[in-house]
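Changelog-adjacent note: as of this version, every example in the card shows the full chain rather than a window. The one below runs 235 residues end to end.
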Amino acid sequence: MATRTTHVIQHLAFEHAGVIGNALRARGHALRVFQAGVDDLRPIADEPADLLLILGGPIGVYETDAYPWLEGEIALIRQRLAAGGKMIGVCLGAQLIARAAGARVYPGTREIGWAPIEPTPAGRDSALGELAAASWEVLHWHGDTFDLPPGAELLASTAAVTNQAYAIGNQVLALQFHPEVMPGDIEAWLIGHTVELGKAGIDPRAIRARTAEVGAGVAAAGERMFGRWLEQAGL
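Full-length structure tokens:
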């Protein structure tokens, strides 16, 4: 199999590619990771990969005064959108793609912990359908939301947050939630987000316990979902 390439924009060390990386490597992708705000992102534009994967993080897309490098990241994503380049966005990544596509990103209802999503009919028929094997339960960890970008199709919602997943043709898969997390990584999330958990009044023991119950099944379903999307996208 000819080697394909994926560029990964990572905003936190512990919010890494997880099962997306597994699905990519299974299909012959070599991953090159860029740390947002630290690494030079110009190679992503100058030497385009087959796929751009944009991962999560705790900052807001709109916090460009505090984190000015966000402007360059958004411009890079906008350029890739215009060129028809394939992308997967997770949480902050989904928000950055929405912003680059011209949609509004803003504070919303905070959702942290394991809970189901409700797929749309389009979502059930898409690669997201693999999550049915996990009863549509996923890990949520966000406080912002976004308007659906022009030309995007809604794939899933929750009662509190309408726009949980969207697709732009076979070019973009964008997820507000985290099906990429491997259960063995949850402790790093609990440590890294301890301040946010405390402010939200969420007991880390509850997330840890539920991860032990459902994490492996969700990760397996997530890996199948990403593999199916990659196949449909010709990657």
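Structural remarks: Residues 204-232 form the longest helix (29 residues).
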